[in-house]
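Please fill in the sequence for the structure shown.

STRUCTURE ENCODING:
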């Protein structure tokens, strides 16, 4: 899947393609003690984490606005001759939000005096009509999630229902918001849509929890620029570097050694299922500087880098099948019985009579047929008190699902009125296990294969304050997720006709260029084993692919 996203936003002209803005705006009004507007008051907005500082003056109505701001925490300062300086601290601006600070009242006095408000009650959204919810950075960092999938935190918001198995191999995005279908939602990372355009479900990439600054969900009544899908818009905002160098390392361990075996494994004498969902994660962020030459004030260029590793391995559900016994492979069916214990008569195909002793003479068994039977696993479970003769082969296959997540973010404060942001997220996912289990193909571990995906989402955003009434925001995005399957040479050789000794001619040999064993099904017995594969037809970097 390859897609490009391009968006240009302006205060006067709007050209909108599927990319979306993640910046916000802070607005307010400056008044005097009598409630009248204070004109030409100096308003300064500063972001402590990066040192970004923006200035403006109030209009004739006393209003002011700071558009095109990155999500984060800001401090506001208002000055005017004849009044005390007023400060508002810890203003938390979320993605795509128009945050109003309300009326900032100046008290009569000297500008050397100041009034500071460092904490306020909950802010009521009055500057725009959308209903939204936010998962904050502290929630992302401090709430433990068993599956380490940040989208599962959306369940904290009203109207969001998540029925996905967050321990499953697929770290997809399948939430229902306000009763809508799960394929009507849009998911973006730093303004770039990453929904699989083929089915509107799942994401091009997964982003590690330690790389997420906040999650914003636009529920209803949001602006037209977010109208790509009819459902909710979920925005993932990745972390940025700050003026101080920060980093973390974390390790989460889940292992079968901490688990009890389940009832059915105990019943059939199978060891506890393999469960190894370990996670290694680290990140580092801070200023990019050259001492005495560039960014000495640590307020221009910042970076953030995160990696998360999932060397995961787990077991599939317990398998119970019926496979030919040693006697049956030799043509002896004297002990082959129905579920009720009655002997299954084997007829001579030449005369329709029951074979003497229910045994087929060895001379009449086709060598290729015997080769196919000997390719199948032999029975390993003989307690008919438990199996009730429904199966004689018990197994539990293992699936390895390693993943690697990477996120890089570069922020460049070109000028107080011009910022550039670059972000790149990648997600490499591999699933190695038996072909056909649990979907299609053979119902046992006939052939192991690897399914892989490599997702990439890139976003570049530039915002410029051209004038007090004109703002330009340009976003370029790119997403891609190739996928494929491959089979190791050893697995192919084990399944080839020459390896098992099968010599019977093929009706359509061109359809089987690698000479793999034919597909075989059995009937008339309970839970029969089968042979089934998909013929690899080409090579990829020296490896066979389906």
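FILLED IN BY: designer on duty
SEQUENCE:
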């Amino acid at each position: 899947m390859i897609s490009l996203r391009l968006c240009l936003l302006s205060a006067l002209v709007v050209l909108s393609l599927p990319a979306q803005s993640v910046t916000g705006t802070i607005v307010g009004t400056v008044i005097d003690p009598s409630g009248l507007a204070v004109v030409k008051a100096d308003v300064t907005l500063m972001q402590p984490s990066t040192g970004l500082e923006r200035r403006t003056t109030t209009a004739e109505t006393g209003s002011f606005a700071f558009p095109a701001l990155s999500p984060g925490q800001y401090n506001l300062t208002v000055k005017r001759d004849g009044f005390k300086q007023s400060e508002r601290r810890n203003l938390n601006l979320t993605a795509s939000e128009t945050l109003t600070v309300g009326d900032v009242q100046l008290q009569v006095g000297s500008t050397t005096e100041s009034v500071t408000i460092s904490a306020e009650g909950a802010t009521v959204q009055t500057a725009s009509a959308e209903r939204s919810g936010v998962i904050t950075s502290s929630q992302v960092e401090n709430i433990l999630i068993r599956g380490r999938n940040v989208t599962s935190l959306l369940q904290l918001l009203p109207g969001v229902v998540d029925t996905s198995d967050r321990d499953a191999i697929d770290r997809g995005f399948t939430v229902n918001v306000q009763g809508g279908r799960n394929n009507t939602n849009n998911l973006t990372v730093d303004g770039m849509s990453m929904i699989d355009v083929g089915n509107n479900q799942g994401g091009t990439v997964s982003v590690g929890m330690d790389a997420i600054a906040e999650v914003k969900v636009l529920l209803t009544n949001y602006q037209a620029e977010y109208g790509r899908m009819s459902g909710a818009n979920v925005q993932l905002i990745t972390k940025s570097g700050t003026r101080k160098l920060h980093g973390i390392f974390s390790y989460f361990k889940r292992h079968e050694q901490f688990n009890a075996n389940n009832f059915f494994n105990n019943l059939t004498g199978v060891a506890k299922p393999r469960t190894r969902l370990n996670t290694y994660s680290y990140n580092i962020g801070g200023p990019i500087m050259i001492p005495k030459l560039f960014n000495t004030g640590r307020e221009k260029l910042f970076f953030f880098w995160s990696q998360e590793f999932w060397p995961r391995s787990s077991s599939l559900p317990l398998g119970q099948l019926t496979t030919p016994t040693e006697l049956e492979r030799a043509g002896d069916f004297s002990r082959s019985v129905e579920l009720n214990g009655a002997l299954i008569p084997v007829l001579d195909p030449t005369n329709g009579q029951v074979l003497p002793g229910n045994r087929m003479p060895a001379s009449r068994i086709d060598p290729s047929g015997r080769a196919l039977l000997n390719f199948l696993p032999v029975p390993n479970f003989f307690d008919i008190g438990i199996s009730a003769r429904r199966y004689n082969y018990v197994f539990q296959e293992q699936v390895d699902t390693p993943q690697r997540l990477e996120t890089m973010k570069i922020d460049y404060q070109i000028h107080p009125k011009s910022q550039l942001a670059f972000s790149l997220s990648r997600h490499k996912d591999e699933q190695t296990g038996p072909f056909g289990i649990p979907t299609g193909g053979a119902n046992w571990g006939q052939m192991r294969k690897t399914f892989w995906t490599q997702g990439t989402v890139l976003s570049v955003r530039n915002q410029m304050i051209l004038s007090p009434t004109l703002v330009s925001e340009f976003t370029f995005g790119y997403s891609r997720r190739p996928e494929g399957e491959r089979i190791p040479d050893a697995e192919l050789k084990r399944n080839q006709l020459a390896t098992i000794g099968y010599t019977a001619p093929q009706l359509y040999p061109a359809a089987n260029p690698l000479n793999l064993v034919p597909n075989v099904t059995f009937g008339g017995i309970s839970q029969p084993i089968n042979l089934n594969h998909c013929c690899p037809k080409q090579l990829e970097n020296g490896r066979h692919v389906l």
